[in-house]
Specification:
mainly beta, Jelly Rolls, 3 helices
């Protein structure tokens, strides 16, 4: 029992020193367009951050290296009755020994201090413990334990070392008693630094040049506008992703209290593990109120997880206020009635024990025509996110009635959701003989059938129909090496509001578009586009990956003003069936 209590105290100390307490996502960072200015403003408050820690072998978070001489050894402190336990282990320093903690460079940190918890026993006169402190200005030596009597103990206490020490040595006086010793139980260095750090471009989490204020670890928070990979176990307080991707490499783990995703341009791919102690929040902006849009989530969303400014209603989207409306698709009804119309059903107002949106299932959602805001947040329940989130997913296709020759065309229609918070290449959907080989996605021109073995991909949080011949399960896994060439556009409002897929009415996603003659040029700060094969959009990003322009374009020709500084940029042209990147130079 004593060892369990000690281990709990040790864990608690490490979490307090190294991680601190949780900080919620500040209101100032709820708008990604302001992140660049926010991180360099006074609103980005300072936080005390323990950036070096050493508990002498008892914590996976030890990162303050040290070297020792003179017979030092790791000691189980439970055997020496140390009262102020900071950990289970300590470093025993016999007389005549020394310990040197590695030098660090506290870039961007201010008010840096170090703290050492130490004591000793069986000490005699002159068995002193001294410390050498190295700073930018000078080096000083001082006695921190002066022994003036015989066979006494040095009480265990915390020693605080201010004024930004860069390196610290401890050394004990020589003596003849082999039982005399000092013990260092823990050491850490901390300083103040802005809470939030912004990532842009492409690199790994520890790539310091990609962050505005060093990689955010422990109880600091990350703002991500780029493609960042996790190459070693990483912990931060909160992370928010907009126009970027978080990739967790195999064999690594990403840990955070809270994770926030802005729109479908934010994604997570995992070949490792993820631990979210609180919840994941998705912020979704709808182009128009009073219109029905397809949506899905890779986690259950209960009523309490929906933006508190909005309430669910179970009628048509015109009650007048901040209301949302949800519909689901009843494929069993379609099969039993053998009728391809009238199968959308209103999701009734739920209690908080029943999710409004079940994970990996597709829905229609609409905001009231008089809603005051078009951006809503949707959150998982605390503790609901499994470690294999963003790594694997399963689509369950429950079908209640049997297929017959009579209802063959209307049997097996099911509205699925993307089970991954990332683009889902259709080629990554597990081969399943019960499916007809297509996914059916709504666009402004109606439903389109895309072959499962094609190079198209579904955006995160999108919904799509499949047609199965019997009840089945479809397994999906993340492929970090997969390259998406054609992203399917899924953000068109359903028109008419009750349209349903039917095999004889779909166009195919393999339309032979004449895309070889697309032409562009820049003149007088104006970008001209010609021979655009179909409606879509363009993006202009700088070489670091930051999006500078995102605009819809129509079929044919278009002109777009560009007011960016001279330099090299990446132009992306994307339509439902075409995607191309060009390097452009703005004079």
């Amino acid at each position: 029992m004593k060892k369990k209590v000690m281990h709990f105290v040790q864990c608690a100390l490490v979490k307090i020193l190294f991680f601190g307490t949780g900080y919620s996502l500040q209101a100032q960072v709820s708008d990604p367009s302001s992140w660049e200015s926010f991180v360099n403003s006074s609103d980005n408050t300072l936080v005390s951050d323990t950036f070096r820690l050493q508990t002498f072998g008892d914590s996976e978070w030890d990162n303050w290296g040290y070297s020792a001489k003179g017979g030092t050894q790791i000691l189980d402190v439970s055997s020496v009755n140390i009262d102020k336990l900071g950990g289970k282990m300590g470093l025993r320093m016999p007389l005549g020994s020394s310990v040197r903690f590695e030098q660090y460079i506290p870039t961007l940190y201010s008010d840096v201090t170090a703290e050492i918890f130490y004591g000793g026993n069986y000490l005699n006169r002159g068995n002193n413990l001294s410390m050498r402190i190295y700073t930018e200005k000078d080096t000083s030596v001082q006695v921190i334990a002066k022994i003036t009597d015989s066979n006494i103990a040095c009480p265990y206490n915390a020693l605080i070392i201010p004024n930004t020490p860069l390196k610290i040595d401890f050394f004990s006086a020589t003596g003849t008693n082999p039982d005399s010793y000092y013990c260092l139980q823990y050491a850490f260095a901390s300083g103040t630094i802005p809470t939030h750090s912004l990532f842009t471009g492409t690199g790994n989490w520890n790539d310091t040049i990609r962050w505005s204020h060093l990689p955010p670890l422990r109880h600091r928070s990350a703002l991500i506008k780029g493609n960042v990979s996790i190459t070693a176990d990483t912990y931060c307080n909160t992370a928010a992703i907009s126009s970027g991707n978080l990739q967790i490499n195999p064999g690594t783990k990403f840990m955070a209290n809270h994770l926030e995703l802005f729109e479908a341009d934010a994604s997570i791919q995992s070949g490792g593990a993820i631990t979210i102690s609180d919840c994941i929040t998705v912020r979704k902006t709808f182009e128009e109120t009073g219109k029905w849009y397809f949506i899905s989530f890779p986690f259950d969303v209960y009523p309490s997880g929906i933006d508190s400014r909005f309430n669910q209603k179970d009628g048509t989207p015109n009650a007048g206020g901040n209301f949302l409306y949800v519909q689901c698709y009843n494929g069993d009804k379609r099969a039993s009635a053998n009728r391809p119309t009238g199968n959308w059903e209103v999701v009734p107002v739920r209690s908080d024990e029943i999710p409004i949106f079940e994970k990996n299932k597709g829905y229609l959602i609409a905001l009231d025509s008089q809603a005051t805001d078009k951006t809503l947040s949707f959150s998982s329940r605390p503790g609901d996110i499994p470690e294999d989130f963003a790594n694997t997913g399963t689509l369950s296709i429950p079908l209640a009635t049997g297929m017959t020759a009579w209802n063959r065309e209307n049997y097996g229609w099911y509205l699925c959701g993307n089970p991954l918070p990332a683009p889902l290449p259709l080629s990554q959907i597990e081969k399943n003989e019960t499916l007809d080989g297509y996914v059916y996605v709504y666009s402004s021109s109606g439903y389109t059938a895309y072959p499962l073995n094609s190079d198209y991909a579904l955006p995160p949080f999108s919904a799509f129909f499949v047609k199965a011949s019997s009840e089945t399960h479809i397994n999906v896994s993340s492929d970090l090496s997969a390259k998406t060439t054609n992203m399917i556009r899924t953000n068109a409002p359903l028109a008419p509001h009750n349209a349903e897929p039917a095999p004889d009415k779909q166009s195919t996603g393999l339309t032979n578009l004449k895309t070889g003659n697309i032409h562009y040029f820049i003149k007088d700060r104006q970008l001209y586009l010609q021979n655009i094969p179909e409606p879509g959009y363009i993006k202009l990003t700088d070489i670091s990956g930051s999006c500078l322009l995102n605009k819809k374009i129509r079929e044919g020709s278009a002109s777009v003003p560009v007011s960016n500084k001279p330099g090299i940029y990446i132009l992306q042209i994307e339509t439902p069936h075409f995607q191309k990147h060009y390097k452009v130079i703005l004079p």
